[in-house]
Amino acid sequence: MKHNQIASANPIIEIRNLFYRFPDGSLGLRDVNLTIDQGTLVVIAGENGSGKTTLLKHLNALLRPTHGTIFVEGEDTVKNPLKTRQKVGLVFQNPDHQIVGETVFDDVAFGPKNLMLDPDTVKERVDAALRIVSLSHQTDRQPHLLSGGEKRRLAIAGVLAMKPRVLALDEPFSSLDYAGIREVLRQILDLHRLGCTVVVTTHDVEKIIAHADRLVVLKNGSVAADGPPERIALELERFGVRIPCAIRMGKGFESWLN
Amino acid sequence: MAQLSILTFRPGKTLMHRLDTRCKLLSFIILSLTALNAELRGLLILSLFTLSLMGVSRLFSLGLCLKLRRLFFFLVFVWLARSLFTQGTPLISVSFLTFTWEGAADGALICYRMTLVVFLSLVYTATTKPSRTREALHRMLRPFPFVPGKQIADMMGLMTRFVPFILDRIGETAESQRARCVENRKNPIYRIKSLAVPLLQGLFVDAHFLSEAMEARCYAQNQTPVPMPLDRTGWIGLSAVFFLCLLCMMP
Fold first, then answer.
1. Residue B220: is its pLDDT beyond 60?
2. Cβ-nearest to B129 among A60, A106, A118
3. Residue A109's closest chain B neighbor by CA?
4. CA-to-CA distance for B106 and B90, rounded, in angstroms?
5. CA–CA gap between residue A162 and residue A208 (Å, rounded)
6. How many Å apart are CA A91 and CA A121, to the nearest integer?
7. Which CATH number fits the domain that encloses residue A49?
8. B9 contact A CB<8A
9. Which structural domain range is residue A238 located in?
10. Is residue A39 one of the residues assigned to a domain?
11. What does the pLDDT look like over B181-211, one tens digit per residue?
């Protein structure tokens, strides 16, 4: 094991010696080694361009490593990308880019339909996913007319309907107001409580750090720090990430839900 | 993104929403072709029919009329062009431009036909989900050998999915340029270039993100089929449209 990687008891994702080179030749990820345990909530922090989104896209097999391997539940993501996409649900930074359905129901049904499930199962899954994100009353609405927080929850539901084992969220709080942030945060924590493994990338850890089991910091495509949030938080500004306000003021972590 | 185009699906439970998509699609193709070929009497009958379709689909609203104002400007332009460049009895002459009676009448008829086609398309797109159009096209093309029905249907589905995006992007790009006083530049080529380049770049980025998001959710050509039982209402509607179009085309 490289770096100060945490030893894992029950890994669901294993990333080994991951390198990724962009088509223009620049290196997006360099020698990333990470193991993520089942049922944990991991925050991946880093400044813009540090490789957070690139790393998430690898977890969902949207990108193929230039070198190295990623295993999700022991299976190589390159060998079986479709299975990987079922197991790791990726919620994009901009929900508008993710919406493909004409109604809330259709958008959530998009994934299950791609899995060729029978219509009854599709309906069951959509209803359940919408119930979890509290959008059951909006099934016939046009997704583009939802509020920012609702769109983000819809994007989460679209992924939940595929019953993933891991939920990967790319900057889930960006461009949301205070109420929207709390709404999405509550949703993420509820899913985590239900046993879902959650991986969240952010450049602003303040909103979620109080709930994280582990904090990984990326810098220039490499893992710069990895460990319990209490230990890493004070070092964050070395890596271009702002230290949470409460910590600066000498207090402990504070939840945004309080 | 909230200000979407008029050519998008509007959820509802009206008769038009419930009508079988294959019959609806065929009906609207026949109606549009008739509108493009009919004379004044036929166009008047078609107008009444289109207005009743809009009423049944609950599509009348002030917002809709406001959104159609750009179409009105386009039609005025078509009418003027036709009036000025058709030979015939002169009505007004200004310098080298002659406004002819035949041109004005012909232009008005063309604009009338185009308006009808737009309204018919509006009724169809507002009451039909693109996914159902995709499925209907796929099923309609299935009996034809050597026609890649699935791919054509997929492309049509994606295209209709992308139209609101494109219109939205055009609006946003134009607004952001107006905010930086592009209107001060009188050169139309400069203005077209400064709109088209960022617009195309933005559209390619949008298309990339959309395809990535679809891939992330296991997009495949083989999806759970949309149940589409062909009922009697669809056939009755299609037959009614067929006879109406015959009536419109009668001399």
1. yes
2. A106
3. B224
4. 14
5. 25
6. 22
7. 3.40.50.300
8. yes
9. 11-248
10. yes
11. 777 888 888 888 888 888 888 888 888 888 8
